[in-house]
């Protein structure tokens, strides 16, 4: 199975890599960036209050 999606003139590789470490495992949108689970956890550990708003936004989006 191909890992590329052709949409008009754009070629998009899936899965998208992490914005920080280029990993393609467990990547999801986090605070406006595509981040892997490891980078998300590192951010949460080093900046515990910085992304608290992200959790609130995600909760409101699910409601």
List keywords for this structure.
single chain, 63 residues, alpha+beta, two-stranded antiparallel ribbon, 2 helices, 4 strands
Q: Please, could you describe this protein's structure?
A:
This protein has one domain. The chain has two helices and four strands. The chain has helices spanning 37-46, 52-62; strands at residues 4-7, 10-13, 27-30, 33-36. A two-stranded antiparallel ribbon has the order 1-2. A two-stranded antiparallel ribbon has the order 3-4. It is flat and about 30 Å long. The N and C termini lie far apart (35 Å).
> In terms of structural class, how would the helical and strand content be classed?
alpha+beta
Helix percentage range: 25-40%
Please, how many helices? 2
For the report, how would you describe the main beta sheet?
2 strands, antiparallel
Whole-number total of structural domains: 1
- Measure the end-to-end span: 35 Å
How much beta, percentage-wise?
A: 25-35%
Shape: flat
Q: Please state how the strands of the largest beta sheet are arranged side by side.
A: 1-2
Taking all Cα atoms into account, the compactness measure Rg is 14 Å
Total strand count, please? 4
In terms of per-residue confidence, which ranges show pLDDT below 50 for 5 or more consecutive residues? none
From N to C, what is the helix and strand string? EEEEHH
Please tell me the overall pLDDT.
79
């Amino acid at each position: 199975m191909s890992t590329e999606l052709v949409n008009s003139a754009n070629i998009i590789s899936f899965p998208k890599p992490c914005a920080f470490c280029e990993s393609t495992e467990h990547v999801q949108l986090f605070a406006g960036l595509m981040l892997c689970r490891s980078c998300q956890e590192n951010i949460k550990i080093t900046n515990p209050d910085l992304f608290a708003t992200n959790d609130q936004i995600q909760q409101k989006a699910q409601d």
